Amino acid sequence: MQLYPLFDPVHGAHKLGQQNLTSQEIDVLEQNFLSYLFQVMDKSNFKIATNKEIDIALSGQYLLNLPITVNESKLDKKLLKGYFAEHPRENLPDFADKYVIFRRGIGIDRTTNYFFMEKVDMIITRIWAYILKLTGIEKLLSRMSSTRRKRDPKKNDETVTEGEQDYLQVERIRIENMHISFRNLLGKITVQEPTFDRIIVLYRRSSSNPKAERGIYLKHFKNIPMADMEIVLPEKKNPGLTPMDWVKFLGSAIVGLGAVVGSLDMPKADLWIFAVLSTVIGYCAKTYFAFQQNLAAYQNLITQSMYDKQLDSGKGTLLHLCDDVIQQEVKEVIVSFFILMEQGKATTRDLDKRCEELIKDEFDGSCNFDVDDAVEKLVKLGIVVRDSIGRYSCVGLKRANEIIGTTTEELVLRAKQIAIAPDGI
């Protein structure tokens, strides 16, 4: 919290100017800030999203149907590259030198609507897949994709991560997997997508000025659908027509032109040309209006993410994280002590299992309980001991309170009571 005012994107440049620091001294301070920040992230149980986790999250579409990419030329590559060079980590994503996405917790988001355009796209996709299957092109494409997988031995050796297990617990209900029926096509349907309960994005903008940009951006979001995770990316490019849309346009134009040329010598060519051109123009219009609809949906999602889903940024995010760390540590200690007090002695493994079962039964939540950290604190406090065979046990509740003594909060409350109490009491 003391270091961040120097790197606040709004006022940080002014404060750095007042300090009269050299460029090397500023580099040291910003790396110190990142070291503390990553420690806080670890203590708050935030994980860095890996390439594989992001690929799984974006393997389908939810409400966002446009390809969103990052304008990498607007992002600094020195800050995070320097940090990870000094503090290497495994499974870093490809973009870790430009920005980092921290994620924590899994939730569910449901949306009910008619989704007419999406249903039309789904029908066209299934018809196209059927044509590919009839012509044998599908087998050729599958062979090419399998060959690519064989050439990349890393993909065959990858194991299922803890994050992927979280994803598998939430079912994805998508339009492309919907059963075709008259009721489904004309009525409202409900789609479902797992969400990242919390996301924090860390990055720095690049600058063409002689004085390098030192502002560090922290954006905090909640309940972000995995398939729409692009809405939290920094410095997004304005979306345009996809390559497939251009293929549709050009393909339709070529087919229409070929049909017109081939029908010039036919009797009643005027009627045939009119029919072909009407079909081509209608298909192009459908593609264009579908893009416009997706663009409007994208703009609505961005607006929603800014007003509804963005919790805070900058200093507010840091304050939230610092408080979150304290709450996490205290909760871990209380739950562990309660289990030992109620259920008796337990090994570390048994205690971990019992704590997770308690959270599941009482709060209907799943988590990976950090039992080692909790037990270490309880042992330091002197209210939990370990026997010769590795089992932990706690002292009585009254004795535990005596050992801990008066807490800071109790002293503050006692001082307030004295301050507001009448004289003589």
In short:
The protein is α+β, with helices and mostly antiparallel strands and 425 residues long. Helices cover 55% and strands 12% of the residues.
Shape: globular
Mean pLDDT: 79
Separation of the first and last Cα atoms = 41 Å
- Major sheet strand order: 1-2-3-4-5
Largest sheet: 5 strands, antiparallel
Cα Rg: 29 Å
Q: Structural class of the helix and strand makeup? A: alpha+beta
Can you tell me about this structure?
55% of the residues lie in helices and 12% in strands. The protein has helices at 12-19, 23-43, 51-57, 78-86, 116-135, 137-151, 153-157, 162-168, 182-186, 243-262, 269-309, 315-343, 348-363, 371-381, 397-404, 408-420; strands at residues 47-48, 99-113, 189-203, 217-225, 310-313, 384-386, 392-394. It has 425 residues and is α+β, with helices and mostly antiparallel strands. Helix 2 packs parallel to helix 12 (315-343) and helix 10 runs antiparallel to helix 11. It has a 5-stranded antiparallel sheet with strand order 1-2-3-4-5. The protein has a two-stranded antiparallel sheet with strand order 6-7.
